[in-house]
Write a structure and sequence with these properties.
The protein has 300 residues and is an alpha/beta fold. It has helices at residues 15-31, 45-48, 54-57, 65-72, 128-137, 150-156, 167-172, 206-213, 218-234, 280-290, 294-299; strands at 5-11, 35-41, 78-82, 94-98, 107-110, 122-124, 142-144, 162-166, 179-182, 197-202, 242-248, 254-261, 268-275. Helix 9 packs parallel to helix 10 (280-290).
Length: 300
Amino acid sequence: MPPARALRAATRGSPLARWQAEHVAALLRAARPEVTVELLIVHTQGDRRLDVPIWELGGKGVFAKEVQAAVLDGRADLAVHSAKDLPSVTVPGLVIACVPERGDPRDALVGATLDGLPQGAEVATGSLRRQVQLAAARPDLTFVGLRGNMATRIAKAAEHDAVVVAAAALDRLGRAGAIAERLSTDVVLPQVGQAALAVECRADRDDLVALLAEVDHEPSRRCLEAERSFLAELGGDCSLPAAAYATVSPDGALSFEGRVASVDGRSVLRHRTTGADPSVGAEVARHLLDVQGGRELLGR
């Protein structure tokens, strides 16, 4: 028997983040029974400032920077993130060493179905991406902000006609029964990396890179890489509502759709194509920027 290995995994402290870190730990134990994983809980700026919209705090990195710092300074061996919380460019010194199999990437309504919402219904969401796409489908809807953990968000459904959350979050927390409707990606395209997990470690830890590769799910990784290339081509943590979704067909090709919208939701640009490798995401972004007028939206 090989000697036991104790690893420290940095994670946020919410019930969902803990579930995700424990899930990665279970995958590692299944692959290498000698491995044990301890959680290092990190409280991020995004968790502390629930009174401020994410885009005002500085975008996606507010949930990742402090967790990444724990790996860089040696307090933790690895970090488990919701991939959607990561900026499109990996922090120097770190590498995304594995992407486990992705969950359901769709958004979900709690409280009512889209067709079941009354005229002028109030929908709670903290995401401009969700808001502009729902408004395109139902221009009569009104929107209010929403922050907090999943339990808080589900409870808020009683104060509004519906709330919008990630379906995978409720699946993972055993709360799928609260979902009134899983929204088709034709209606609401997911956030880049939604329902995917990204496990980071130091780039110079060859031993960990090799270990984590054993629980990597190649189709999920390829899809995430394509979606991240889309966001990077748009300009990193793009200030516009952006969405992307990649899938792998049986022949191995990547099918990719990307969307960019104006902040007021009046202009929604979309493009879909297929390609052999993750650069298809960047290709779609360039089409939206240079052919469909996305640069003009960014200029505004």
